[in-house]
Amino acid sequence: IKDLEGLEKAKEELRDRYGLYPQEVRNLLEIIYLKTFLKSLGIISLIVKGEVVVLRYPPDVNIKAKLDRLPLLYQRRLIKEGKKLVGISKIDLSGVNSPEILKFLKEFIIDLSK
Question: At residue 21, does pLDDT exceed 70?
Answer without folding.
Answer: yes
